[in-house]
Amino acid sequence: MKTKVDKTRFTIIHCADFDAYKDEHVTLDGKEQALNEQSRITWPLNCYCVLVQHPVLGNVLFDTGIDSRWQTRWPRNLAEGYPVARSFDLKEKLLELGLHVDDIDYLIISHLHFDHAGNLWMFRGTKAGAGVIVQEEEARHAFLCANRYDCAEVTYHGDGYVRHEFNGLDGIAFELVRGDVKLAEDLELVLLPGHTPGTMGLVIRTEHTGTVMFPSDAVYNHFNYGPPAMKPGMCARPEEFVDSIEKVRQIMEKENGTLFYSHDVEAFGSYKKSPEWYD
């Protein structure tokens, strides 16, 4: 069911909780490095997407979370190495808001890693699926560089991409963008390379909450943000990662904004989740 709103609002849709490795997300200290060499230190993560309801653009979905079929679709070593504690079906979460996948007008993918693009398949044959917005540099990297030599994807190769989750999906096409993109005066995409070549964040400006940014994995957590900025271990372009954090910081300081980290369990506990809204 289409929902017409007079003012922009957004909600955070909780998709999953899973474990990853701490050295992928922060810089380990000396003691942790020694322990990590013996057995990699695990790190609990949350996973979510963001639904924006806009008076002109309609329903805008930022990311899709972990594949709700991960138990049968993930490479075995991914499921074992990144165990999912719990997951929520995105279609059911949308239904709680009175929406179906066909009601989504725009679908934006911050980057094509498995915990952000996993449910693209749900949008095959839909309006949003006909023009999934992704950065051109991200698409180039994901389609041309990820899992080139393991087409059956028997093994996860540790780069964040599960190729079949975005490649070869009938009814899915991509609209490639370059750099920062103003979708509306109160809704912008911001290119934040580093984590991947084409990671991008979402800036939303609302009447009561003010300016907020979802930087995706350009800023995993408050440790990365600092200051000073802390590089993670999982980073395609380390030299650009810190620059992107400073770009985020400039926007937040200029507009007195609020930053929503992508994988910060402590911060995530304080966020309102759907069906509650920020406006």
How would you portray this structure in words?
- The mean pLDDT is about 95.
- This protein has helices at about 30-40, 70-75, 75-80, 90-95, 135-145, 220-225, 240-255, 265-270, and strands at about 10-20, 40-55, 60, 85, 105-110, 130-135, 175, 180-185, 185-190, 200-205, 210-215, 260.
- The protein is an alpha/beta fold.
- The chain is globular.
- The strands form three sheets. It has a five-stranded mixed β-sheet. It has a five-stranded mixed β-sheet with strand order 8-9-10-11-12, covered by helices on one side.
Q: Summarize this, please?
A:
By secondary structure, the protein is α/β, with parallel strands linked by helices.
Q: Distance N terminus to C terminus?
A: 20 Å
Strand content: 15-25%
The averaged pLDDT comes out at: 95
| SS field, number of helical segments | 8
Query: So what's the oligomer here?
Result: single chain
Shape: globular
The parts where pLDDT drops under 50 for at least 5 residues are none
- What are the secondary-structure elements, in order, as H or E? EHEEHHEHEEHEEEEEHHEH
Strand order of the main beta sheet, please? 4-1-2-3-5
Helix content: 10-25%
C-alpha-based Rg, rounded: 18 Å
Give the biggest sheet.
5 strands, mixed
Structural class by SSE content: alpha/beta
Total strands: 12
